[in-house]
Design brief:
CATH architecture: 2-Layer Sandwich
Mean pLDDT: 91
CATH topology: Alpha-Beta Plaits
Strand content: 25-35%
Structural class: alpha+beta
Oligomer: single chain
Largest sheet: 4 strands, antiparallel
Radius of gyration: 15 Å
């Protein structure tokens, strides 16, 4: 099982409701892709003791690397990137994790 995490820094000057719109559109569009097993997204909770430049996160789960690749090659994902991510994101940090204990990550 692959856990794909996107930490997103939004472009400056976007209206506050745009974060909500990005979250809603992410859920609507990405859950239509068959290889996406689950999706979570959320916005930052501002904390004084924690400095973070990420405004939003997306967490997607896939059965394996092939399913992840298939999902990211899907036309709906390309549309999502072009219409939602690129116009709104200044920076995206991507992290991926293998969630099955004992599984060699080279064969995920």
């Amino acid at each position: 099982m692959i856990h794909h995490l996107k930490l997103i820094q939004l472009k400056g000057g976007l209206p506050p409701q745009r974060v909500e719109e990005v979250m809603v559109e992410s859920r609507i569009r990405l859950l239509k892709i068959q290889d996406v097993l689950s999706l979570a997204c959320g916005k930052k909770i501002p904390l004084k003791e924690q400095e973070s430049f990420h405004d939003l996160f997306l967490a997607l789960e896939f059965e394996n690397i092939l399913k992840r690749t298939s999902a990211f090659d899907h036309p709906l994902y390309h549309q999502f990137e072009a219409q939602i991510l690129k116009p709104n994101a200044a920076k995206i940090e991507v992290l991926e994790f293998e969630m099955d204990p004992g599984k060699d990550v080279r064969f995920s």
